[in-house]
Amino acid sequence: MNPVYYLYLAALLFTIGATGVLIRRNAIVVFMCIELMLNACNLAFVVFSRMHGNLDGQIIAFFTMVVAAAEVVVGLAIIVSLFRTRHSASVDDASLMKL
Amino acid sequence: MNAENLIALLIAAPLLGAAVLLVGGRRLDAAGHWIGTILSTTSFVFGVILFADLLGRNADDRTLMQHLYTWVPVAGFQADVTFRLDQLSMTFVLLITGVGSLIHLYSVGYMEHDERRRRFFGYLNLFLAAMLLLVLADNYLLLYVGWEGVGLASYLLIGFWQHKPSAATAAKKAFLVNRVGDMGLSIAIMLMFTTFGTFAFGPVLSHVTDASEGRLTAIGLLLLLAACGKSAQVPLQSWLGDAMEGPTPVSALIHAATMVTAGVYLIVRSGAIFNAAPDAQLVVTVVGAVTLLFGAIVGCAKDDIKKALAGSTMSQIGYMVLAAGLGPIGYVFAIMHLVTHGFFKAGLFLGAGSVMHGMNDEVDMRKFGGLRKYMPVTFITFGLGYLAIIGFPGLSGFFSKDKIIEAAFAKGGTEGWILGTCALVGAAITAFYMTRVMLMTFFGEKRWQPDEHGHEPHPHESPKVMTIPMIVLAIGSVFAGGFFSIGDRFLHWLEPITGHSEGDSPISAGVVTGATMVCLVIGVGIAYLQYGRRPVPAVAPRGSLLTRAARRDLLQDDFNHVVLVRGGEHLTRSLVYVDHTLVDGVVNGTAAGFGGLSGRLRKLQNGYARSYAVSMFGGAALLVAATLLMRAV
Amino acid sequence: MSPQLAAYATSTGEAFQFWVLGTVAVIGALSTVFMKKAVHSALSLAGTMIVLAVFYLANGAYFLGIVQIVVYTGAIMMLFLFVVMLVGVTAADSLQETIKGQRWLAVLCGVGFGVLLLAGIANASLKNFAGTGQANANGNVEGLAALIFTKYVFAFEITGALLITAAVGAMVLTHRERTERPKTQREQSEQRVRDGKHLPPLPAPGVYARHNAVDIAGLLPDGTPSELTVSKTLRDRGQVRDVSAEALGDLKALEQRSEERLERTPVEPAHFKRSEEASK
């Protein structure tokens, strides 16, 4: 088996995650889909690391995880405060920026 | 003091009067009419002084110039306020101020019971000032100022009784019709400027040969259009009859001394241009001939004494324009007829006003009759004016009109015969309708009836202040023509300005005079048979087709209505349609297109974060596709 | 087998592992997207992440594999679940699309993007796999540490600052500053009286009923359930069980059973009829 299949899997997972972001309305699920996309990227980085025989790809994946953690913390806080004010976790309800 | 410096005072006096009377307000009500009369007379006195000064000079040195200031001091566009007093201007100045002052005097009596008399005199003075500016200007631009001033003053005076809708309409009509002519003048001035680089009389008229004949013909025709507007010539004649809505002194002023003479002045003053453009000259003679017959026919059918006189004015001005179109053969006689006409037409109008004054402002001649016993002074002065206008031998009209008919024949060739015949026929018709006016007004049985309130008019002679001007004008009507003609005094006076040539008449002067006399007798005879022998019916008979058409001013208003008003309406309607469908269609279509487009685009901005995310995702997909494509290429 | 070839072609075991776990990962991802309840989505995502951790390990990223399980699946997903519990009162999302054309556009873009991505990968000639054997010679963690503290030290420091900022930001976002004096108990009770709300403690669930579970509404004397006895969260979720009819049904069954036991026959209406006729 060629390790390049890992890349196909990463692309597939990324696409599924992106589509999920677009389809789901629950902000938490949308967030999960974003995490899925990040993880797909991480997988690709790890495979790249293997491909090139050095650890830089893993380092990038590591940083991605850190940033993802920070993003999750802030994002969930936003969702919580949004839910407090609007009593809804639907992203469609936060649509005040239209005419 | 130099004589030149008096020229500005000629204009200043009536202008001052107008300003004082119009600005002064009610406190001048008591003395306003005398202020106006005195200032107009002052102007006349200045005119006489200047006339004496001119007479004391050589015939070649009779042009006085007064430069007041530079009006438009722009390089390449120099317009000066300069006055030019030569023999031609002098003639007009004396006519305007002299007859004008008499009309002022007459108005003192005529307008006695009008509470807006002060304002009336202010307008009269304004009229005189504008007319004097017109004839004294040394360039066409300044002349245009006077020209427009005359238009304004005539508007104010014709519509003086503005509470009457008919008067207001007539004033508007006169103003509008005049605008058409004014436009001709303004375009002519522009053409002149582009052709000669200036519009001062001297340079323009002495460099006429520099320009092409086509250009000159265009300028000449535009000047003729202007003259048609002011002088009520066909096809811009329709305002004159309605202008009778103004007070009678205004009619006298417009018809005798000012306004309608302006067109003749313009043509004679621009004689050099017309001399170099024979086509334009021919059109001028045609317009004159048509108008003289047109006015005469209209005059025959009118029962309104003032409108009959208005038709007569149109006809007589037609004679003058005809003469002016003949070139150097006729210029002098055009002006001479203008002066004599100024006397007798003013007299006739003042007489008509006097009759109306005595008849409770009745104007229908069918309700007059036998008035000679009630108002003898009016009868005599009106009668002398009548004899003068029909060209009774020895009176003013005889000399001036006879000369014009001679000059028309002297044009030579077929044109000469046609024009001369027209002038002869016009003389016959003039004799007919003036005799008709005379007979219906002063002879026969009295035909006036009590009005609906039971007030029967009590015809009475007018006061002295009105009769004295009439007497003075009657004297002018009788003797002016003879005084001018004996020894060709007028010819020699005006010749340095206008030039003169005898032409080659196919028939001798004696034959022409004889033919004129025959025409005169025929015209008077027919009128006597129709109106002197038989009683005049109180209600106008239906009359022939021509009579009915003539009563409607030969359908001039109908013609204007059908051709101009309807045509204009259709034109504007179609333009509006084009504007609405095409122009607005494009504009609105563009707007609607953008509106619809933005309406659709706006839907993209629905505020849903997910929609925006789709756009971003789609964009990312396109970027990937682009990258792959670039790599593939 | 040369090292290069080993890197190039993976072992059969890894291939087997990839196909099995890869299928699980895709199913988990799809479940994340399509599960109605947020909790199910979170659990599916956790499964996918664990699979990915295994893949990291298989690719020689030992440190990342462990971190993936500990940090992602252990911490971040728990944080998700915590928020789901906090927020997810509306238990099930409606998957009905409300924005016109959104779903089709999303699927179209997704498919297009996926196809392009896959085509791109297939197009790139990725034949040469070096393998991580050389890089991991001194241990994976040591290798990463060497890089982090030398080459990537600046980025590393900055991520530290980012994490602190994120923590403070989360606190700021969720913390509500009290701008007025809190109400005393007395004031709160006065307010309740003024608003006409329910004054005494709410009745307990399960009263007058055979069950005393919290999701069963207490019955009023006439046998109808009282909403007040169940907590608002359960009511909103629609998880209240109504047992009022059940009690009556039980009673009926009991009566029937006792009748059968006592061999009583139901009273014959005709019998009464006849006696009435006899008395006549």
From TrEMBL, chain A:
Q: Which residues form a coiled coil?
A: none
- Per UniProt, what is the membrane topology? Multi-pass membrane protein
Q: Mainly localized where? A: membrane
GO terms for molecular function, please? NADH dehydrogenase (quinone) (non-electrogenic) activity; quinone binding
InterPro entries named among the record's database cross-references: NADH_UbQ_OxRdtase_chain4L/K, NUOK/Mnh_C1-like
Record-listed E.C. numbers: 7.1.1.-
Q: Could you tell me the keywords of this UniProt record?
A: Cell membrane, Membrane, NAD, Quinone, Translocase, Transmembrane, Transmembrane helix, Transport
Query: Where is this gene product found?
Result: Cell membrane; Membrane
Q: Name one Pfam family in it.
A: Oxidored_q2
Query: Where, by residue number, does the polypeptide cross the bilayer?
Result: 6-23, 28-48, 60-83
Q: What is this enzyme's catalytic activity, as reactions?
A: a quinone + NADH + 5 H(+)(in) = a quinol + NAD(+) + 4 H(+)(out)
Q: What is known about what this protein does? A: NDH-1 shuttles electrons from NADH, via FMN and iron-sulfur (Fe-S) centers, to quinones in the respiratory chain. The immediate electron acceptor for the enzyme in this species is believed to be a menaquinone. Couples the redox reaction to proton translocation (for every two electrons transferred, four hydrogen ions are translocated across the cytoplasmic membrane), and thus conserves the redox energy in a proton gradient.
- Subunit structure of this chain's protein: NDH-1 is composed of 14 different subunits. Subunits NuoA, H, J, K, L, M, N constitute the membrane sector of the complex.
HAMAP family per record: NDH1_NuoK
Query: Any idea what this protein is called?
Result: NADH-quinone oxidoreductase subunit K
